Amino acid sequence: MLDLALAALLVLQDPARIDELVKKLGAADFAEREKAAEELRKAGKDAEGALRKAAESEDPEVRTRARGLLEELEGPKPKRAPRPGPPPGFQGFRGSSVQVQTVNGDSTYVITPGDGAPTLTFRKKGEGAVKLEFVDAKGKPVQAEADSVPAFLKDHKELAERFGITEEGIDYAGARVPFKGGLFERMPPRNPPPFERRPPPRPMPPGNEERPPGPDFEPASEALRAQLGLAEGNGVTAMREGALPGLKRFDVIVELDGKPVGDPGELRRRHTPTSVLTVIRKGERVTLGGERKDF
Predict the structure, then answer these.
(1) Fold of 2-74
(2) CATH classification of 217-294, choosing from 3.20.20.80, 1.10.10.10, 2.30.42.60, 1.10.3720.10?
(3) How much is the pTM?
(4) 83 has a pLDDT exceeding 50
(5) In this predicted structure, what is the pLDDT of residue 183?
């Protein structure tokens, strides 16, 4: 048994065998790609050199899988320090925006901070129940609920102060919106500096009032990444048909202009009318975009 184990180890360490496995990372058959990736994991550091070359491959499948395997070999990266919430009286960042969607009396407030922080969603039902959805310092989605806004302010005081939630509305990261009235100017600012002038709110996209509430994109879940063989932090799920030109609902975006992407905010910042998206749709990789005529 020991001789067989040693022989299997020597096969995995063979450079020619490793090169062959790297090529199979781009095979047409999904099962063959998965098997090759598993064999390269077993080879460990002996496959590192070949994987580094493959990480620059022109084949997006080979490139993405090679980079993911290298990340596994290198181990988890140190977490970035969390972004602190705004202190009391803070007026936020220029470029922040907010979208308000109301359907059958239920309102959803989606705030995109101008500093690149993850989007913040506050849902308020017609009967009064509210829910806050945000991303914590570890990059995990978090929810906080209450039966009403006053109950939320009492039960989740720290979160309310951090995200600027009051009985009148939301004032966070430069994005201000009241719960009543529909105009930013009707909500008194929190300790505004003298003579401050704020830019007018961004207009809602045509037909936006008919769209169901909720974000356009969400980070790919851990279970989905495992099914698709994606590295940690890679993958953004489209939650709407046409969230970007050519996208279908539940497409998983893995690359933007040849670089891995895993954060919805980063996707919005980097995307341009000529960007090229690599997505996984029904188990197959599809390339979208490029010249405007492709849209």
Answers:
(1) Leucine-rich Repeat Variant (1.25.10)
(2) 2.30.42.60
(3) 0.34
(4) yes
(5) 42
